[in-house]
Amino acid sequence: AQSVTQLDSHVSVSEGTPVLLRCNYSSSYSPSLFWYVQHPNKGLQLLLKYTSAATLVKGINGFEAEFKKSETSFHLTKPSAHMSDAAEYFCVVTPSNFGNEKLTFGTGTRLTIIP
Amino acid sequence: GAVVSQHPSWVICKSGTSVKIECRSLDFQATTMFWYRQFPKQSLMLMATSNEGSKATYEQGVEKDKFLINHASLTLSTLTVTSAHPEDSSFYICSARKPGLAKLSYEQYFGPGTRLTVT
After folding, report:
1. pLDDT (average), residues A17-37
2. From CA B84, how far away is CA A49, in angstroms rounded?
């Protein structure tokens, strides 16, 4: 079984300040973890992914996330928020065992950027 | 690249009618596609896994006779909502798995979604 908990449903930060979106996971197998972003009425875009390589993963648009097995966390960060970062962010887990491709989505975190 | 399109992007239909949503992988062949449903301000819920040339695998609680899935080619999967009712109104998103990337096989490419409103 696997699950994802996004600890904040809504995060507001000022433009130019750091962003932290928190995600904790549970998985029976060694997980692969993803962060996706969804702008209003749009599909999902992959920000970054962890697949058992380096624990610090760098993604697009300046985002990065660190896989911490001891804390079962995969928090998403960005040093300086931009207005275009305002969107819904989903943390996603899938087990790395072969043949199982089902993605389990967190409930999402809405990021608001204050000018 | 790996681009997935959906058509239509937005559809309104009357209660009792059926509506078909198409999902296409534009620049790769997808043996496996997935259909998700997203309610307002909620997360995505997997409805079914669509495999080219075989029957779809539905998640628990999803009515296969109501949500008909056909994956007739390596670039096209369709979802037909039959006898639609207002409670079927939702945002439907498809994704496609690009084959041949063994270690990254869990990465899915998502379409832009289709908003269905049933009146």
Report:
1. 91
2. 37
